[in-house]
């Protein structure tokens, strides 16, 4: 089966970049990305490419090439579904905030709405592709909805095609993926044809040996597993960062030493203020919930520890600032460099910065933030979402500037929350001169040249080293 038209429901951090790359690499396929969020669609259609709703290095070029040729962004969801041979579902699947499984299970209401909408609208056979990250066995629920509510004898095939891109490197990850995973029904001719149809899309730029096909359940579970393993490495090294601080070992040296063992590997061993992002915590909680649902208590507890460690790491960083600043930050200005959950993205979901700010605001500090890509209102939305204090209190406790020197001026301490490269290039002498003394600096990312800063006069804390001067 040759795919001529693709619809993707959800124009977010995954739907937008993924479809832009598919459109760029498959000029013969019409790709329409739809969303109910009109402002987001308008931003995707903005002539000014710096206004795209997702900031990713290189994305503007890909969109520029394909948009209007075979890549379209629209709010006409029904029309795009009906036209398509293949429909990707790439909507959000956040942690449930209500009812059974609150705080753990994935909220699948948006997925179910999509399935019902596809069933209602479809007049021709469709391959429905799960691009969102979903609990294992969700495909059977989607299939049941599609088969039972269409009523027009339309045939549906369900594929699982989880996305492994990381934000900040989305375009290069999509262009050169380690693997593309496609789960489908290998037992039937129709299932095999559907798998082949999706394989042939990716084969336009991904070598065939890197396109892995499995059964649907393995594919769904592999996505949660991959994120759990990655996050586990960060929590593992973060747990040791605390031990390093007590023992005069250096976590970067330890990471390098163990990472040179090819069985361990060197990636994802960077100690930090804690992992953030929209995926790791959500997906591990989901995995824990699934394990609990099957009565697998030990399995659930094992993975939950990754989250417990991460929460500890964020809290520990904030408490360390408070205790170092003579046990009080009340009324003291603390400068935050970075708010995004990692560099090269404007995404702030679950960013460690939010939690560190929340702890410090509870101690009545005055926070000033600079982040090169995050909008001011987003920071307030992030804090308000925690519900710790009123929106007015968040606004009076935290201010935002567009100038890092302004942010750091008169501060008692600077905290590095995101590893933006530009922070390394600042005039640190100038920053030091304009700060309160002692000028404390807390590097939550192991980003800066600490000996050089100490020479200037800063009193530095670096995650995972013994910090003898403090
Ligand atoms: N962000 C990542 O880096 C990443 C990577 C891999 C996988 N994922 C997974 O991909 C999925 C999407 O993540 P995201 O970060 O792109 O989310 P997102 O919140 O950025 O985007 C989701 C979009 O779906 C839209 N939407 C929701 N319901 C809709 C409906 N019924 N009809 C039309 N549009 C609808 C929302 O308006 C939103 O714009 C999640 O399951 C996530 O776990 C995310
Ligand atoms: O050694 C490391 C590596 C990462 N992090 C932090 O971990 C978080 C997540 O980083 P990263 O995984 O690079 O970004 P995400 O965009 O969240 O990507 C993850 O989550 C996506 C959504 O499921 C998956 O598709 C990706 O494969 C997976 O890497 C960030 O806060 C990083 O700062 C560290 O602290 N130390």
TrEMBL record:
Q: Does the keyword Oxidoreductase apply?
A: yes
Pathway, per record:
Nucleotide-sugar biosynthesis; UDP-alpha-D-glucuronate biosynthesis; UDP-alpha-D-glucuronate from UDP-alpha-D-glucose: step 1/1
Keyword annotations of the record: NAD, Oxidoreductase
Q: Which Gene3D superfamilies match?
A: Cytochrome c1, transmembrane anchor, C-terminal (1.20.5.100), NAD(P)-binding Rossmann-like Domain (3.40.50.720)
The chemistry this enzyme catalyses reads: UDP-alpha-D-glucose + 2 NAD(+) + H2O = UDP-alpha-D-glucuronate + 2 NADH + 3 H(+)
InterPro entries hit by this protein: 6-PGluconate_DH-like_C_sf, NAD(P)-bd_dom_sf, UDP-Glc/GDP-Man, UDP-Glc/GDP-Man_DH_C, UDP-Glc/GDP-Man_DH_C_sf, UDP-Glc/GDP-Man_DH_dimer, UDP-Glc/GDP-Man_DH_N, UDPglc_DH_euk
Q: What is its EC number?
A: 1.1.1.22
| Domain named UDP-glucose/GDP-mannose dehydrogenase C-terminal: residues | 335-450
In the record, the note on similarity to other proteins reads: Belongs to the UDP-glucose/GDP-mannose dehydrogenase family.
Q: What is this protein called?
A: UDP-glucose 6-dehydrogenase
């Amino acid at each position: 089966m040759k795919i001529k038209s693709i619809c993707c429901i959800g124009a977010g951090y995954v739907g937008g970049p993924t479809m832009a790359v598919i459109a760029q690499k498959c000029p013969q396929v019409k790709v329409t990305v739809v969303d109910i969020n009109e402002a987001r669609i308008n931003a995707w259609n903005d002539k000014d490419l710096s206004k795209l709703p997702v900031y990713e290095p290189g994305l503007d070029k890909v969109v520029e090439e394909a948009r209007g040729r075979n890549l379209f962004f629209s709010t006409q969801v029904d029309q795009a579904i009906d036209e398509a041979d293949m429909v990707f579902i790439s909507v959000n699947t956040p942690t449930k905030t209500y009812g059974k499984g609150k705080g753990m299970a994935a909220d699948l209401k948006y997925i179910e709405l999509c399935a019902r909408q596809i069933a209602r609208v479809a007049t021709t056979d469709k391959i429905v592709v799960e691009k969102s990250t979903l609990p294992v066995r969700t495909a059977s629920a989607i299939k049941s909805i599609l088969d039972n509510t269409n009523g027009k004898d339309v045939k549906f095939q369900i594929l699982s095609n989880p996305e492994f891109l990381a934000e900040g490197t989305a375009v290069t990850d999509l262009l050169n993926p380690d693997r593309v995973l496609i789960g489908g029904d290998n037992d039937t001719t129709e299932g095999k044809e559907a798998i082949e149809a999706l394989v042939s899309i990716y084969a336009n730029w991904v070598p065939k040996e890197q396109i892995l096909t499995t059964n649907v359940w393995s594919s769904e579970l592999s996505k949660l597993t991959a994120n759990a393993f990655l996050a586990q490495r960060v929590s593992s090294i973060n747990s040791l960062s605390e031990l390093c601080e007590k023992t005069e070992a250096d976590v970067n040296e330890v990471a390098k030493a163990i990472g040179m063992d090819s069985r361990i590997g060197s990636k994802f061993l960077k100690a930090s203020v804690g992992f953030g992002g929209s995926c790791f915590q959500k997906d591990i909680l989901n995995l824990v919930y699934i394990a609990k649902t099957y009565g697998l208590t030990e399995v659930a507890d094992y993975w939950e520890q990754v989250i417990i460690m991460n929460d500890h790491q964020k809290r520990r960083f904030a408490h360390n600032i408070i205790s170092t600043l003579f046990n009080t930050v009340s009324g003291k200005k603390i400068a935050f460099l970075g708010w995004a959950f990692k560099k090269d993205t404007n995404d702030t979901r679950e960013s460690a910065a939010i939690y560190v700010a929340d702890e410090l605001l509870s101690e009545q500090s005055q926070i000033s933030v600079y982040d090169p890509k995050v909008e001011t209102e987003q920071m307030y939305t992030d804090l308000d979402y925690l519900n710790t204090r009123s929106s007015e209190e968040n606004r009076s406790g935290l201010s935002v500037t567009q100038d890092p020197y302004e942010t750091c001026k008169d501060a008692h301490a600077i905290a590095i929350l995101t590893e933006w490269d530009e922070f390394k290039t600042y005039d640190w002498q100038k920053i030091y001169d304009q700060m309160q003394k002692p000028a404390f600096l807390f590097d939550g990312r192991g980003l800066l040249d600490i000996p050089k800063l100490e020479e200037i006069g800063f009193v530095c804390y670096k995650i995972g080293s013994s910090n003898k001067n403090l």
